[in-house]
Design a protein that fits this description.
two-stranded antiparallel sheet; mainly alpha; disordered N terminus; single chain; 2 strands; 26 helices
Length: about 725
């Protein structure tokens, strides 16, 4: 049956379906017989000659690899909400300034990711290709994360709050014993003008706009955190997981184990945050500061377990890397059409998992009008994590039973209508139970994304190895990581820009309250026109105001414009529904099934043995190019470009390069010339555009440099069979 699948010349998805029937007559039985783990070997040019490897991956290795994901996930679910809660709400950083910094940092890091990924593939040491990156860079990520969520030079006494220096601060705010004395003191201080009345129209603010130094601090450690954690640590770490085993079903198990640790990692900051939010109910900075300390301790343990518990493939320790230029590696990936389908799926489903983390706190506070939003937020995230942990064994079973694309398509399709329905429910009528139901859907989708999509990517890398003879996990994972960075801009920056454009006010225009600690322990909130004096202001949200209407709503849950809430709802629910429709479409056309993957491995082994093979997805003969420097130089260009004369190709590349440089200079000039409030909008949007130019400029510059070094004889050779095939597949 394998021979039939390899030698057949039929093409398209019908080809893969016939391989399903030939290789797996009992489609309902997804179990496999693990092959003997054999040491991987390479040929004279460093190509892997063992397509099947480590198919008996041990549970110990799976757990050692997966455990490292725990602190990374904890960081992720701490930094995202802390950005808005600490910097925007508590420290009064402008939402436009915040969005501008995020855009600029992401744009620069977008380019650096490609350099890290290709370097990880091309440089091999006696300790491996991936683990040295993790061991060296992750400690810097730990320090950067702590300093990012704990900007202690600007938080004052936020972590160790003491209000004794304020009027009536010497009276302990305790309604059972000291409330009458506190109320009498407040009345006297208001009468003599020391304290403002509860309904005074204007209040002298002790919370001025954030200084420029805070923006510098945020930019420095935000960039450092993402560079050392997601770029320099997660790219090699993800690549390591892709190459631990070649077995189709073992990969599902490996990434299922990793997902369990991933969601346990998400649970850690939320469980800690839930406890700390009761200890510091009105001091969100203290909550995140102590959470960061807990995660730092867990991080060190995870780093030791990964270092001593996981071993890389033998050929990763030979000292011989791929030696494939970055442009060639990326061009090969873009010619991998299953990978293009994968990216079409990955973008929207990642956005669905990101939006609730970034926007749910805004929805709870300004949509549902909840003063005590933090406790429900942490509880909701725990519900998501609990649903994810329970859903992981179910997704694991269904994926092995029915297949990856089927699970992806049907789960996304089932969740899609609910998100559209949630969009039309008025926020203040939103039952808490419905919030939890939405959390269950998000949890299931996140499990599918990390279990199914990651194992799909490993299969796609095997398909690339069939055509190139090289293992390029770093290139594929860097594209995924950079995609995640770009999604962070779309899901984290664009909503903030739109909210600011329609009149968003930090903390509802209030100086403190709704989770932002007031300096005075007896204040629940301090807003223009309304001050919530209370006996238990700093310790509970149920303490009634001493002056004014007792049951009135805290002003810090109000935004002056309803458009702010509509934008939150549109991104949180409507956009998520659209994204899930796109996921269903991409899953339907994804071509690599279990049987097709087995045929890919058989074809790879046939080529390694000196035979011939057919692409199981297209039915065409697989033709690999010669692994020579001349051929690598040629692979910088498409077959169409190589058919042009040297003069015209140089003119084309030079013109494109000048166009990118001109656009880059024009954007910089526009950002510098802008002024007023519009400047921050222009800078943020300009930074998003620059993220593409940061890739296009070095891309064409590298290709032009190679073209100038190519001899006339190298260009005179017609396009090879593989170059023609790559152009067709692209």
């Amino acid at each position: 049956s394998v021979g039939v699948c390899i030698s057949s010349r039929r093409s398209g998805l019908s080809r893969a379906l016939r391989c399903d029937r030939a290789l797996n007559p009992a489609m309902s039985d997804a179990s496999t017989t693990p092959a003997e783990a054999a040491p991987a070997a390479t040929d004279s040019v460093g190509r892997s000659t063992s397509a099947r490897y480590n198919e008996t991956l041990s549970s110990r290795t799976m757990c050692a690899y997966g455990f490292f994901r725990l602190p990374i996930s904890g960081y992720d679910l701490t930094v995202r909400p802390a950005r808005t809660a600490v910097y925007i709400e508590a420290l009064n950083q402008s939402i436009l300034t915040h969005a501008m910094i995020v855009s600029c940092c992401k744009s620069v890091d977008f380019l650096l990711g490609f350099l890290v990924g290709t370097t990880s593939d091309n440089v091999s040491t006696r300790w491996g290709r991936r683990k040295p990156w993790v061991v060296v860079c992750f400690p810097f990520a730990i320090v950067s994360m702590f300093l990012l969520v704990t900007p202690f030079p600007f938080s004052g006494d936020a972590v160790f709050s003491d209000s004794d220096d304020f009027p009536c601060g010497e009276i302990e705010p305790d309604s059972a014993t000291a409330c009458p004395a506190l109320e009498q003191c407040l009345v006297e201080m208001i009468a003599n003008g020391t304290l403002p009345a509860h309904n005074v129209s204007s209040v002298e603010s002790s919370n001025p706009p954030a200084p420029a130094a805070l923006s510098v601090w945020f930019a420095l450690f935000y960039f450092a955190y993402y560079f050392f954690s997601w770029t320099c640590t997660m790219i090699p770490y993800d690549a390591l997981g892709m190459e631990l085993t070649s077995d189709y079903s073992k990969r599902v198990s490996l990434f299922s184990v990793r997902v369990v640790f991933q969601f346990l990692g998400y649970a850690v900051p939320n469980a800690v945050g839930l406890v700390l939010s009761n200890i510091f109910p009105t001091n969100i900075i203290a909550v995140y500061a102590y959470t960061a300390l807990v995660l730092g301790i867990v991080s060190l343990a995870a780093l030791l377990v990964l270092g001593f518990g996981v071993s890389e493939r033998p050929e990763a320790k030979t000292g011989q890397g791929n030696e494939v230029p970055a442009v060639v590696a990326v061009r090969r990936a873009l010619c991998n059409w299953p990978y293009c389908i994968y990216l079409f799926i990955k973008f929207p489903i990642s956005l669905v998992s990101l939006l609730p983390v970034n926007l749910m706190s805004f929805f709870l506070r300004y949509g549902m009008k909840m003063e005590d939003w933090a406790s429900l937020y942490f509880t909701l995230v725990l519900v998501i994590l609990f649903a994810s942990l329970l859903g992981t064994p179910l997704v694991w079973y269904l994926t092995r039973r029915f297949g990856k694309r089927e699970v992806l398509m049907y789960v996304s399709g089932a969740c899609c209508p609910f998100f559209f329905a949630f969009f039309f429910v008025p926020p203040q009528s939103f039952p808490t139970a419905v919030i939890y139901i939405a959390g269950v859907f998000v949890g299931l989708l996140t499990v599918v994304m990390f279990v199914v999509l990651d194992s799909m990517l490993a299969d796609i890398i095997d398909y690339d190895a069939l055509h190139t003879g090289k293992r390029s996990e770093g290139v594929y994972t860097v594209a995924e990581t950079n995609l995640q960075q770009f999604i962070e801009v779309i899901g984290g920056v664009v909503p903030l820009l739109l909210m600011s454009a329609v009149g968003f006010e930090n903390n509802g225009g209030c100086e403190c309250g709704c989770g932002v600690a007031c300096d005075e322990a007896y204040m629940r909130w301090k807003c223009p026109g309304d001050i919530g004096y209370s006996c238990d202001g700093q310790s509970t949200f149920d303490s009634p105001p001493l002056f004014g209407e007792v049951g009135r709503q805290a002003p810090c849950v109000d935004q002056g414009s309803d458009a702010v809430v509509w934008i939150i709802r549109a991104f949180l629910f409507a956009l998520s529904g659209v994204c899930l429709l796109l996921v269903c479409l991409g899953a339907k056309i994804y071509p690599i099934t279990k049987a097709a993957h087995s045929a890919i491995l058989d074809a790879t082994e046939s080529l390694a043995a000196g035979g011939e093979a057919t692409d199981p997805l297209t039915g065409k003969a697989v033709v690999r190019s010669a692994a020579s420097h001349a051929q690598l130089r040629r692979e910088h260009f498409s077959a169409r470009e190589l058919s042009l004369s040297s003069h015209w190709l140089k003119t084309q590349l030079s013109g494109r390069l000048l166009l990118w440089l001109g656009a880059f200079i024009a954007i910089l000039a526009g950002m510098a010339a802008s002024g007023g409030e519009a400047r921050q909008y222009i800078v943020a949007i300009g930074a998003i555009c620059c993220s593409a130019l940061f890739v296009l400029v070095p891309w064409d510059a590298a290709r032009l440099q190679v073209l100038l070094k190519m001899s006339r004889a190298e260009r005179a050779v017609g396009p090879s069979a593989e170059e023609k095939d790559n152009s067709a597949r692209s």
